[in-house]
């Protein structure tokens, strides 16, 4: 992100001064300012962020900034967005799949769209898998002699997917679980992806159990049904399992209480967290990490200056105070209505679609503005990179 402007005095402002300027800007002005030069971009990455919500209704979408209490209406694709599933988000980008099982990356602010190559492009004679389009249902996946159907409804409830986007050069990685036993991934690095111009080499399939996964710094962490965490190295174009450098290999996660949902997340420092939505306990959400000294999993009492969005697989540095009244601050967990079982909404006039759980007080702040059960709602974090 170099620029001739890097050489003038504006690019050499003291980081503390520049950070205070950034934190006084509105969200949209913040994202414009961070693109001025490489130094401004680097400083912007140290500023606290907070999540927005995108509400998808028909052909239009509503972006809601909860801190500024502002609403932005967007026609994102010019198509009926009720016919898409949002699988993952990263910064200003969301990963979506349409009825034909075509995958797209979409920038919710600029409306830039990146169409991933079709699944048929993975077809090659020496591959152990291939996708064959079925116009009525989706795709048939042939894998190691087994053939099964993959449809749009497979992504309706099963949204185990990750997205990573480099905001400076446009590189990206996507991965999603298929039938909970395979991970299909695509990596775009540089102008020619893997350097040889062949689309079919961009796709990879990994055979592994997958209850959930998280990605950071070229590593994909996969939680298996037998309670282990596997690590896959994405530094090359084809993911490879890492055995020797996996500290979780001999330390399965055991939890005796009733788990409603389990998600992985990775902190800014690279620590892997197991985040639980619990049934029947006052705490509602619990977080665990592996204590390498004793070789056991222990509860995380505080996230410090970070917050996480349940299911978004990474933590962010967040404001230390709730300035909106919606609970959006550090040491909290944002979630959607189907991430947590609760009867609190029975006493409320409006059905809550999402909420924020405060780890310090074990209380939930419910959010009801804009949404209804017919809408598709996603949290995303503008500017995260």
Automatic annotation (TrEMBL):
Gene3D superfamilies: 1.20.1280.50. It comes from the Eukaryota. This is F-box family protein. Residues 63-357 form the KIB1-4 beta-propeller domain. Residues 10-50 form the F-box domain. The lineage of its organism: Eukaryota, Viridiplantae, Streptophyta, Embryophyta, Tracheophyta.
